[in-house]
C-alpha cells in the first residue's frame, strides 16, 4: 500500500515536472521569437551604415553619436518622457480612485460599472484617439459648451494640437489598464483585515495607508508600467492630436523607417528608447517595492 502511494506521488511529481517544463519551454519560445529575435535584429541594424538608398552591414557608432550630438533628438526623447510620466501619474490616481469606488462603494452597480469600464477597450485605439480630436476641436463639444458662456473659439486653441490634448486622450485610453488590476487586488483583500485594523483602533484613513494601499501596490505598479510603456511608444495619438512642437520619439522612429529610409539610425533610436524604458521601469519597480514594504 505504501509502495503504491509512493508510486502515485512520484508519478504526480513527474507530471508536474513535465507541465512545468512545457510551460517554461513555451515562455522561452515566445521570448526568443517575439522579443529577443526582433530586438536583436534592431540592435544589429543600429550599427549598420546607410549609403544613399541602401544600407550595408558594418559596425559603426555614428548613429548613436548622431543622437548625442543633435539636441533635437534628446529634446524629443525628453518630451516623450514628460508626456508619458504625466499620463502615468494622472492614470494612476484616476484608475486607483475608480477601482476603489467599484470595489467598495458601487454596491449592486459594481458589475454594470465594471463592464462599462471595459467597453472602450472593445473599440479601435485609432477611433478612441480620433474621438478626442472632435471633442477638443474649436467647434467641438467643449468649445460649443464654453461658447455659451462667451468664450471665443480662438481662446481654446490650447485644447487641440498640444500636450494637453495628448495627455487627455492617452489618460482616457489607458485608465482601465490601472483600474482593472487594482480592482482585482482590492477584491482579493479579506474584509477581516479592515475589521481587525478597526478593532485595534485605527481610523479608515490609517487602515488604508498601512493595510489596503501596500497590498495593492504591486497591481498599481504593474498597471503604471503598462501605461508608461504604451504612452512612451505611442505614435497615433501625437500624430492626430499633437502639433509640430509636440512630436514624440515614436513618430521620429517611424519617419526614419519610412520616408527617410534610414533604418540604422531608426534602430539606434529604438535601442535608446528601449534602454530608457528599462531604466525608468526598473526605478519604478524599486520604488514600488520600497513602498510596499518589500512584498
SSE arrangement, N to C: HEEHHHHHHHHHHH
What is the oligomeric state here? single chain
Integer average pLDDT = 86
Number of strands: 2
Instruction: List the strand order in the largest sheet.
Output: 1-2
Query: What share of residues are in beta strands?
Result: under 5%
Biggest sheet, open or closed, and with what strands and sense?
2 strands, antiparallel
Helix content: over 70%
User: What is the rounded Rg?
Assistant: 25 Å
Textual characterization of the structure:
The chain has twelve helices and two strands; from the N terminus they run H-E-E-H-H-H-H-H-H-H-H-H-H-H. The chain is mainly alpha-helical. It is globular and about 75 Å long.
Briefly summarize what is shown:
This protein has 12 helices and 2 strands, in the order H-E-E-H-H-H-H-H-H-H-H-H-H-H. The chain has 295 residues and is an all-alpha fold.
